[in-house]
Each structure stands twice: as structure tokens, then as C-alpha cells.
User: Fold Dienelactone hydrolase family protein from Novosphingobium olei.
Amino acid sequence: MCDELTESDNERFLAQVYPAQGHPAQGYPVDRRRFAALGAGAAVLAVAPGCVANPAPDAGALPTASRAVTITTPDGKADAFFVYPKSGKHAAVILWPDIAGLRDAYRTMGTRLASAGYAVLVVNQYYRSAPAPIMSSLSEWRTPAGQEKLKPMIAAITPAGTTSDAGAFVAWLDGQAEVDTKRKIGSAGYCMGGPFTVRTAVASPVRVGAAASFHGANLVNDTPDSPHKLLASTQASYLFAIAQNDDERAPGDKDALRAAAKAAGRAAEVEVYPAQHGWCTIDAPIYDQAQAEKAWGRMLALFKTALA
Assistant:
């Protein structure tokens, strides 16, 4: 998860990348060359607060439509962003944002996924505390004020609550005209959203066929409901894309995930990427285009085979 340790790692990494001018996390302008030619879907790429670029669409991208939605859960009303191809019915995907929550960057990422042929629900995991956007960018979380703002909101999210939310989201999606209920549902999560993908598969094992975690936090721990211990309670196939600095801190996690998947009889791709924690999120100072595109491609491959 984005914590003091991963942030310190990323500070050192970026200091090496930007030895003279500094880097975005220290208040310097983002080097636009790092973000050129992303090739993401329709919408925009948020590279810094108030600064966006217009990437070219993916080859074969479908036109999309979207709407803001509210979903009733056992704990209240959850706001979310629902985006989907303009015509036809499609497999659904629940997208869990990183620690800074639902914002423009994740609307962009959700839209790109929808343009690949999926009905995507980008959720506000903090709905118990406030409607989205909680923050405008990941950089805002990096400030003392941002971290103080999120502390009580993070504390309000529990494993049981996330599983309950996921069940409500699956049920809501199955009631939408844009969703093909004959196909399985997928889940994708970033940072704190990584383990939420596993809990989504636990919430509705019959419906959820795939879960993709990118630089996911706390996937392996000693609690009885550690995500890696829950794989046997699911019927999903998995992608665990791990950041190099997360692996350096907990090198046994990848082995625990592989062993748990094997014992559960679940297909799982577990890979450590040569990139820092947060590398897949397009408004992160640590964003790594090449490795993010590789991870994106692996997610699409997973969804293509597992969401039949």
C-alpha cells in the first residue's frame, strides 16, 4: 500500500531519475516526455493537477458512454462511475482505485477498459465517509493534509465491509442492460484496491471469474482472512502484478501467492515488475508507461480467457 516506506522508496527512485531538476513528488513539473504517446482510450490522461494530455485511442477502441450511479449497499449509498461500450452487452468489470480514490485518472482508466469491450464500474471505496472525488490526484495524498484527511476514511473500510460492498456491486451490475450476465464478471484493483479484487471473488464466486491486482497492498498477512488464504473460496483466475520495491520488502509474498493458488487449484500469474509501487496509475509521479502497458496487456489477456 502507499505508505511511508513505499513513498520513501519512490522518493529515492525519482531522485535518481531526476537528479538535477527534482521530480513531481517534490513539487517540480512533470516531465511530459515520460507521458507522451500513452495510447490510452478516449478521455484524458491526468499527469498533474490541472494538467492533462490527450492520448491517442487504442487500435480498435469502441465508442463509450458513461453515467454517474449510486448503488445501495448494506452500509449505505455508494457512488460510482459506470462506463461501457455504446452498443451491445458486455462482460462487466469492477475497478477498485488506489488509496487516493475515484478521480479523473481512474475515470480515464475505466474508460479505456470500457473501450476494450467491457462494462466497467469504477467505485468509490470511501463512500461511507464522503462522495468522490476525495482527492484530485495521487499527489494530493502525498501531502500531510491529504494523509490526515484519509486516515479516518481508511479506518472505516474493513475486509468484511469490502466483501459486502463487492456483493452489492455484482448484484447491481447484473441488473444493468449493458451487462452480459451470461459472461463472468472481472475485478481490477490498484494499491489498496489490490486485495479488494480477491474479496470481490469471495463475495460472488459463481459470478466473478477473474481478478487482477496491480501493486496490491497487504495481499499476504497472518490474519485468518488474508487475501492469499481466501483463494480456495473463489472460482476466479488471477493476475498479481507486484512492484519491485514491494517485493524487496516482502520477498516471500510472491511465493506465498503462488503456493496458495496452486493449493486452491486456481490459475494465477504472479510476476514482479521492474517498476516502483504505483507504477500503473496514470497520475502517479512514479508512473512507468512501458511497464504499465505490459501489465494492462496481461489484464486484457486474463479477461479475454476468464470472462467467457
Q: What stands out?
A: Strands lie at 45-48, 51-53, 64-73, 76-85, 92-96, 119-123, 185-190, 208-214, 237-243, 268-273. The first strand starts at residue 45 and ends at 48. The chain has one domain: 67-306. Confidence is low (pLDDT under 50) at residues 17-54.
